[in-house]
Specification:
- There is one protein chain.
- By secondary structure, the protein is an alpha+beta fold.
- About 40% of the residues lie in helices and about 15% in strands.
- It has helices at about 5-15, 45-50, 75-80, 85, 95-100, 125-135, 135-145; strands spanning about 55-65, 65-70, 110-115, 120.
- The strands form two sheets. A two-stranded antiparallel sheet has the order 1-2. Strands 3-4 form a two-stranded antiparallel sheet.
- A hairpin with a 2-residue loop joins strand 3 (about 110-115) and strand 4.
- Helix 1 packs parallel to helix 7.
């Protein structure tokens, strides 16, 4: 449940956000990658299947949503291709806490959580600790901010 401060921040973010058309593709976190490599080359399926981050390999790459996604194995690649929505990180792989605050920033692959079957990535382990303290409030804010954020 949102407290008064959270509600005010959510309302202010919604009012200040620029309008983005619904048909516009949502951004994917390729920050710092000249090759448009998503989430620093880490395998999004590994968080679900292996219980944590694993660096993907170039030979197991897929183009999806304007970015290149890498996988640690052919099996992970096939799982992603069969159901990308199941494995894609929330908010295009940008920091979930940053998205809740109204901006898109980098992530550290070790700062992650899976909540209700969805992968959330964070800026670093300190931000992850903050994120986990009030996850539902931050998800509510991030969900409201996400449609209007652009890198």
């Amino acid at each position: 449940m949102l407290d008064r401060r959270d509600f005010i921040m959510l309302a202010a973010a919604a009012l200040a956000a620029p309008t983005v058309r619904a048909d516009m593709p949502r951004p994917v976190n390729t920050l710092g990658s000249p090759d448009r490599l998503a989430i620093r080359g880490y395998d999004p399926v590994a968080y679900f299947r292996d219980g944590g981050p694993r660096l993907g390999k170039p030979e197991f790459a897929v183009s999806h949503g304007g970015a290149t996604w890498r996988f640690a194995s052919a099996e992970h690649k096939a799982l992603f291709e069969a159901d990308p929505q199941r494995y894609l990180p929330a908010y295009g792989g940008f920091c979930a806490y940053g998205t809740s605050r109204g901006y898109l920033v980098k992530i550290e692959p070790e700062a992650w959580s899976i909540i209700d079957g969805k992968l959330y990535l964070n800026y670093d382990l300190g931000v992850r600790k903050t994120w986990l303290a009030k996850t539902q409030a931050y998800i509510t804010r991030a969900d409201a901010n996400w449609p209007n954020l652009t890198p």
